[in-house]
Design brief:
Blueprint: E1 3-5, E2 14-15, H1 19-28, H2 41-52, H3 64-76, H4 79-82, E3 115-117, E4 123-126
Antiparallel strand pairs: 1-2, 3-4
Helix pairs in contact: 2-3
């Protein structure tokens, strides 16, 4: 099998026949090299999508590029450790208006906290006050 990118600390690798990775590359147009910077937000987002995200039928999801971009922002802003509210990993409270969910939850990303979307489920705004 041909490898597409390296894993953290020599762990599991993502291969060319992974349907989520193939779909992500198709929608984003990103070259494989963009995913090879170990510990970068984009690589963390890729591994989250492939190994942890439980959104149904992710390999057929039309907004996979958007989900990847948002999860890259999350990891770039140290969401797992530095967010005080609505973090996907830490046991933080998510008391934002409109019953929004924590980031990296298994719902459509338009339902994640701090996001506004249009009627086609494209993110139009990220509103974070802190």
């Amino acid at each position: 099998m041909e490898e597409h990118c390296c894993a953290f600390g020599g762990g599991d690798k993502i291969f060319h026949d992974n349907p989520v990775f193939d779909q992500l590359r198709k929608f984003t147009g990103m070259p494989v090299s963009d995913f090879q910077n170990q510990h970068s937000p984009s690589q963390k987002a890729l591994f989250w999508l492939v190994e942890e995200d439980s959104y149904p039928n992710l390999e057929d999801y039309l907004h996979i590029g958007q989900r990847f971009a948002l999860s890259s922002i999350y990891f770039g802003l140290n969401g797992d450790t530095d967010w005080l509210e609505c973090s996907g990993k830490a046991e933080t409270n998510c008391s934002v208006p409109n019953n929004k969910s924590a980031w990296l939850s298994d719902v459509e990303e338009c339902n994640w906290a701090y996001l506004s979307c249009d009627r086609n489920s494209f993110v139009t705004e990220i509103i974070m006050r802190k």
